[in-house]
Amino acid sequence: MANTIYPVQTGLERRALVVALTALGCIGLMASAAAQTPTTEVKVSLNAPFDGSNAAFFLAQEKGYFAAEGITVNMDPSGGSGEAVTRIGSGAYDFGFADVNVLLEFNAKNPGSAGKAVYMLYYRSPLSIASFAKANINKPADLAGKKMGGSLSDGAYKLFPVYAGMTGVKPDSVKWEYGDLRLREAMLLKGDVEAILGFDSTMYFSLVRQGIKPADIKFLYYSDAGMDLYGNSIIASKKMLETKPAIVKGFVAAAAKGWRDAVANPAAAIAALKKQAPLADEKLEMEKLQWLIKNQITTPESTADGMGGVRAARLDKSVAVLSRAFDLPGKPTSADVFTNAFLPPLASRKLP
Fold first, then answer.
1. Model-level pTM?
2. Backbone dihedral region for residue 227 (phi beyond 0: left; psi -120 to 50: alpha; all else: beta)
3. What is the Rg, in whole angstroms, of the alpha carbon atoms belonging to the chain?
4. Cα–Cα distances in angstroms (integers) from residue 52 to residues 169, 206, 222, 322, in the given order
């Protein structure tokens, strides 16, 4: 049997081999450590069932923006802004997507549990009253004697007294039927009510999905009554703001990238949504997201200033109006409901 001949290694070669093996060992340890790096897990309450209005969060998750900030997100649907804000206030959820005006009322009445809006997204409020043309509701006065449907947890219902006060509608002249947010349009379709409250896009696309012609759907907007309100924003809980500000900053940065990408490419956001909600109607959810981008997100203010921030004078004015309407305690100011301390750089907030 032939002898195997091994090459003789010099001292220099041996040292080089040791160095190489040591380097490989360090790389392996680094990779292992990176794989084991702990991430912060957060719970997020969305504004509604999974749909086009919150698809941008799923896009941010899919693209790894949250992971890059060391954050693992668990997102849940909700029954509306009222529920999302209550979840934040209770501490059960760390972040939410909800109407800043509903947050204002909650904070004033529950100062010990007050979270804050940290990134504004809806620069024109979509709050409105929807009806069919046959109901002949063309102006606020036409609501007198009508039966209306609302969800107790929805921001539109919570703010209806303000709308009524600004338009001269007597609250006791309206008859109410209450139901779950997801059954609101069904009440209108069945004829149980003559009008419903909510976000224009949500109601519009739910009705169109049921075969209603767009021309048969009419809206009265809260904004047309002088309620120059901001709308939905990203909200952080009091606990997160006080104990984990770095996580708040990272979450906002990641979500901001997702929303900017969604504005630039709505189809990508809807594709990410579809993976989370396989039964979603892609066409209708795409139209819903495009509606929001056009009507709520893209305004002269957001175009000039970028997304995320607010104009203090405008927010102060709406806070004053709502405080009087709700008879809120403590004379709240805009600082009680919004902070710009966690906004990412303007370059990442500019509309594409």
1. 0.80
2. beta
3. 26
4. 33, 12, 22, 29
In whole angstroms, give the CA distance from residue 318 to residue 91.
Answer: 26
Sign of the torsion angle spanned by Cα atoms 71, 75, 81, 84: negative
Place of tokens 């890059």: 68
Tokens 């004053």, located at residue: 320
Instruction: Give residue 37's pLDDT.
Output: 58
Q: Which domains does the chain have, with CATH numbers?
A: 40-123+231-348 (3.40.190.10), 127-225 (3.40.190.10)
State the Cα–Cα distance between residues 173 and 322, nearest whole angstrom: 22
Contact 196, 154 (CB under 8 A): no
Closest Cα partner for 135 from 177, 209, 196?
A: 196
Q: Of all helices (H) and strands (E), which one includes residue 282?
A: helix 282-292
Closest to 81 measured CA to CA, from 276, 232, 292 = 232
| CA gap 57, 78 in Å, rounded | 14
SS3 277: coil
Q: What is the mean pLDDT of residues 166-179?
A: 91
Residues in the chain: 352
Within 10 Å of residue 96's Cβ, how many Cβ atoms? 29
Q: How confident is the model at residue 201 (pLDDT cuts 50, 70, 90)?
A: confident
* C-alpha distances out from residue 122 to 5, 228, 232, 300, Å: 77, 12, 5, 12
Q: Please give the Cα distance from 35 to 72 (Å, whole number).
A: 14
C-alpha–C-alpha distance, residues 206 and 52, integer Å? 12
DSSP string of 201-239, one letter each residue: HHHHHHHHHTT--GGGEEEEEGGGGT-----EEEEE-HH
Number of H helices, E strands in the chain: 14, 10
- DSSP letters, 197-209, are EEEHHHHHHHHHH
> Smallest Cα–Cα separation from 124: which of 287, 328, 314?
314
| Lookup result for tokens 């003789």 | 8
